């Protein structure tokens, strides 16, 4: 079984469009959540929404990064995917060191090309107009994986994982398993999503889980999640190969765990989340006592935060109070299929920089949340093992385990 390490990072996020900018915002607690402008297709000033804030990517013009033909043939989510993958691949140079047939692309995207879909269906339903001939390839969820393979000339397996809010984490976990088993030698993996369309926001508003103020995970006054967008991509390879070529190593992926609640389509179940954490620890051949940080799913809803708290207690028992916990969704929002990837990036940077990000925007922790929530400034510590949790609608759970190196 091969050891698997992270040797390249890339991102397009509400916290910045480079890893350096993301890192600065992460550890300074500078949130990317901000008021969004009125949608031109929406009637009225309020647009019928109970909230006015999202975590959107800023200062990103695809035309500055991609050829005109690629921009026209793809959706915003794919633009994010290609550019973030380019950053990770350029840093690690894996396409120069591995046969393209031995590199895989495994990414997570749950929503597909929402902007292209809503634009074209609006034309169809309101004006009976002919839709754009590239609508299908713009909207398919696998467009990101396909375009990364074309852009990087990679001919190995190219896969898209769609498991709602766990998509990115499941994708990273699968890429890790493929390299560890020897199926492939390296991978570009992560998640991407650009779902902030008016129809998408109205759909989520109808569920009454979006915060009318701002996401504050584990806070006593939390009132819901904040929707976001973005991408985070990584290059993975074996530890032996990375060390032999003196590559930059950010962290080692040592385990992954997945589970299904088999309980309810929207209500999370503590036993399912706990099972995924236990499986990740078993896969890592690790003892629960080694865990020194948990990057929580932490959406800021009443149900999710209390359920995840219960799951952590199930796994760690009396030691729970000694494990620092935070959720970075208060900074970059909930980007659905990309969330697990953005949170994996935060976890990797925490290990690499010897500091754990704070749970931003929270003044008072909910008394029912009996966890060691990091507040204020980052905590200067290097844990032996860190877990990154992703708990999705449908009861689809994914947990990644990382070690510093």
Description:
The strands form two sheets. The protein has an eleven-stranded mixed beta sheet, sandwiched between helices. The chain has a two-stranded antiparallel sheet with strand order 2-3. Helices cover 36% and strands 19% of the residues. The chain starts with a strand and ends with a strand. It has helices spanning 19-28, 68-73, 76-92, 94-97, 114-127, 135-139, 143-152, 167-181, 198-206, 239-244, 270-283, 302-316, 329-332, 339-353, and strands spanning 4-12, 33-35, 53-55, 103-108, 158-161, 186-193, 230-238, 251-260, 291-295, 324-326, 372-373, 385-392, 396-403. The radius of gyration is 20 Å and the shape is globular. It has 405 residues and is an alpha/beta fold. The protein contains 14 helices and 13 strands. It folds into two domains: 4-244, Thiolase/Chalcone synthase (Peroxisomal Thiolase, Chain A, domain 1); 254-403, 3-Layer(aba) Sandwich (Peroxisomal Thiolase, Chain A, domain 1), CATH 3.40.47.10.
């Amino acid at each position: 079984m091969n050891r698997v390490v992270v040797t390249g990072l890339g991102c397009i996020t509400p916290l910045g469009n480079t890893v350096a900018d993301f890192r600065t915002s992460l550890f300074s607690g500078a949130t990317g959540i901000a008021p969004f402008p009125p949608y031109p297709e929406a009637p009225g000033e309020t647009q019928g929404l109970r909230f006015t804030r999202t975590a959107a990517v800023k200062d990103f013009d695809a035309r500055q990064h991609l050829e005109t033909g690629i921009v026209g043939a793809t959706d915003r989510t794919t633009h994010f995917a290609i550019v973030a993958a380019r950053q990770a691949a350029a840093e690690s140079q894996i396409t120069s060191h591995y046969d393209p047939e031995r590199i895989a692309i495994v990414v997570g995207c749950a929503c597909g090309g929402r902007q292209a879909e809503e634009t074209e269906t609006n034309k169809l339903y309101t004006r009976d107009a002919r839709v754009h001939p590239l609508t299908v390839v713009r909207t398919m969820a696998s467009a990101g994986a396909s375009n990364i393979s074309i852009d990087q000339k990679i001919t190995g397996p190219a896969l898209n994982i769609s498991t709602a809010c766990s998509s990115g984490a499941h994708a990273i976990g699968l890429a890790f398993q493929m390299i560890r088993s020897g199926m492939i030698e390296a991978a570009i993996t992560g998640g991407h999503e650009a779902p902030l369309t008016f129809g998408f926001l109205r759909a989520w508003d109808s569920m009454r889980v979006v915060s009318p103020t701002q996401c504050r995970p584990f806070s006593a006054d939390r009132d819901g999640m904040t929707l976001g967008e973005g991408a985070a991509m990584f290059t993975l390879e074996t530890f032996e190969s990375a060390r032999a070529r003196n590559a930059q190593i950010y962290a080692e992926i040592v385990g992954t765990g997945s589970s299904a609640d088999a309980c309810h389509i929207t209500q999370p179940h503590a036993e399912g989340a706990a099972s995924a954490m236990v499986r990740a620890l078993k896969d890592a051949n690790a003892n629960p006592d080694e865990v020194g940080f948990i990057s929580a799913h932490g959406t800021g809803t009443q149900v999710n935060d209390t359920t995840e708290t219960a799951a952590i207690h199930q796994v760690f028992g009396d030691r729970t109070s000694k494990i620092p916990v935070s959720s970075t969704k208060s900074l970059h929002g909930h980007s659905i299929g990309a969330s697990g990837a953005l949170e994996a990036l935060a976890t990797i940077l925490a290990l690499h920089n010897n500091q754990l990000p704070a749970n931003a925007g929270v003044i008072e922790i909910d008394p029912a949340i009996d966890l060691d929530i990091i507040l204020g400034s980052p905590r200067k510590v290097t844990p032996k093992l860190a877990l990154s949790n992703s708990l999705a609608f449908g009861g689809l759970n994914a947990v990644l385990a990382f070690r510093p190196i």
